[in-house]
Design a protein that fits this description.
mainly alpha; Ribonuclease iii, N-terminal Endonuclease Domain, Chain A; Double Stranded RNA Binding Domain; 2 domains; 3-stranded antiparallel β-sheet; 10 helices; 11% strand
């Protein structure tokens, strides 16, 4: 049986619960709950060509997240220059870091995913979880402004920031150093696929060292390279 939700439409009870759980996680009762519903909508459950999916909110949420974390790091490490702040920022806003936060807070259960994709476990995939968290930040920013987004981001990232005693190494640098120490060929990065509109591109990048390889997807080529390097390091160091 469907019940009435804040969007003014009859929706299944589980989707109402998803909205309620997301509101609690964000500590915000949305003035425009349609924004939150959009943030929770995976492309598979959206209209033609992804219309109504969370991809647009992910786009702005990514920028808000980067701004807030950069501001935070400048405040927390007043004596550090860009060379150290950059790796800190990259690590904190990386897909694995965001996916871990989303997983701990059960964001996957909040997502509206097509039944077929749900059966394949899309809601538990790291990139889907990370994208959803960015979309939720985007929705929060558009509904309540920068301060509300800042408060949420600082709350969910507080532990990760506290644990950053020293600047982490850039994944590409770390991977190159790993190869050099073992007299192996330098990492080889290749663009496997590039898609999406100019305002929201998607890059699939592979990186190879000898017989080992890994891939990653991101909205910028450099970001995808960093994630691919991180993924390959995880494989090589196991």
């Amino acid at each position: 049986m469907a019940i009435r939700n804040p969007l003014g439409a009859d929706v299944p009870p589980h989707q109402v619960r998803q909205l309620q759980d997301a509101s609690e996680f964000l500590c915000r009762q949305f003035a425009r709950p349609s924004l939150l519903a959009e943030a929770l909508t995976h492309r598979s459950a959206a209209g033609a060509k992804g219309a109504g999916s969370n991809e647009r909110l992910e786009f702005i949420g990514d920028r808000v997240l980067g701004l807030v974390v950069a501001e935070w790091l400048i405040e927390r490490f007043p004596d550090e220059q860009e060379g150290k702040l950059g790796p800190r920022l990259a690590a904190l806003v990386s897909k694995p870091a965001l996916a871990e936060i989303a997983e701990v807070n059960n964001v996957g259960a909040m997502l509206n995913v097509a039944p077929g994709e749900a059966k394949r476990g899309v809601s538990s995939q790291a990139n889907v979880l990370a994208d959803a968290l960015e979309a939720m930040i985007g929705a929060l920013y558009l509904d309540a402004g920068l301060q509300a987004a800042r408060t949420f981001i600082r709350r969910v990232l507080a532990s990760a920031v506290e644990q950053q005693a020293a600047p982490p190494k850039d994944p590409k640098t770390a991977l190159q150093e790993w190869a050099l120490k073992r007299a192996l060929p330098l990492p080889d990065y290749q663009v496997v696929d590039q898609s999406g509109p100019s305002h929201a591109p998607r890059f699939v990048i592979s990186v190879t060292i000898g017989a080992a390889s890994a891939t990653a997807t991101a909205g910028a080529k450099r970001a995808a390279e960093q994630e691919a390097a991180r993924n390959l390091l995880e494989v090589l160091t196991k």
